[in-house]
Amino acid sequence: TGLNAAIRSKGKKYFGFCSDSNLINNGDNQAILKAEAGQLTGENSMKWESIQPNQGSYSWSGADTLVNFALNNNMIVRGHTFVWHQQIPQWLKNINNKQTLTSAIQSHIAAVAGRYKGKIYAWDVANEVFEDNGSRRSSVFSNVFNDWTFLDVAFNAAKAADPDAKLCLNDYNLDYSSSKLTNFVQLVKDLKSRNVPIDCVGTQSHLVVGNGAIPSYKSTLDSLATTNTEVQITELDIRTSSSPSQQQMNQQVTDYKTVATACMRTSSCSGITIWGVSDRDSWVPGVFNGEGYALLWDNNYRKKSAYQGFLDGI
Ligand code: XIL
């Protein structure tokens, strides 16, 4: 039903949201998930610090809740995420040699991807590995390896643990032409040329109402499509002032429509995930001072005009 039915009727694979147990168990929010979503991503429950906070001890309840709810309600799951510089435990950050880090990556991915084998549509095997200037981002992974081969380790481990899941490289600020976008595309091509199993690219798409990136968003999807992998819009939101003007609200309707249409017109774009349901629960106000109003439902779980804009774009 809802947005998922609409996008599927036009040949795409899914529409969905991020969620986790607290919002799954919130009645208003749950009703919207059931009516609109064909896909869920764990907002936090599958991150390394959530699942393996202490080395060798795994905590599954949040991720299990998400996966079980999704599968029981006919939704597919995007797994998020393994190799990332954020929301990782201190014990992992302390590792300073390649052999120990390789086995930590391999055992984490074997455990997590193995537990959910056959239940995950796509894994964000690595997240945000570029700085905004297009250079390799500093992290425990890049610092210890001092090259890109931590990605080879991670993608190969995920392939071994769940051969049918699509394996993605995910990042943000890929929304306009830049050296970050160019280098991201080149990295995916390089990984493929050395037979690293990568199937998809994720463009987070944390956008800003009225931003110049939005009218040319289709051309960035086209750039991502040159990797010959599936393109997924993984964390869409379009933020503005937390108390927007009428003009900003209207612009948001247009911008949601533009993004939806860009995916519809890109054959390799397979689906769209919006990073939350209600503005009340969005991550935006906590991170971007004075900004908010980024999603399709308002603080009281009522549909905003942007919902219709997005639907019109499908
Ligand atoms: C965010 C969550 O929404 C917040 O609840 C959490 O406090 C921080 O992380 N890019 C990502 C997501 O890949 O995992 C982030 O999610 C948002 C930015």
UniProtKB/TrEMBL annotation:
Residue intervals of the GH10 domain: 1-313
GO-annotated cellular components: extracellular region
EC number(s) stated in the UniProt entry for this protein: 3.2.1.8
Reaction(s) the record says it catalyses: Endohydrolysis of (1->4)-beta-D-xylosidic linkages in xylans
Enzyme category, top tier: hydrolase
The keyword Coiled coil belongs to this UniProt entry's keyword annotation: no
Domain of life: Eukaryota
Keywords: Carbohydrate metabolism, Glycosidase, Hydrolase, Polysaccharide degradation, Signal
Keyword Lipid metabolism found: no
GO MF term (any one): endo-1,4-beta-xylanase activity
GO annotation, biological process: polysaccharide catabolic process
Family under the similarity heading: Belongs to the glycosyl hydrolase 10 (cellulase F) family.
Name of this chain's protein: Beta-xylanase
Organism: Drechslerella stenobrocha 248
Lineage of producing organism: Eukaryota, Fungi, Dikarya, Ascomycota, Pezizomycotina
Residues of the whole record sequence present: 113 to 426 of 428
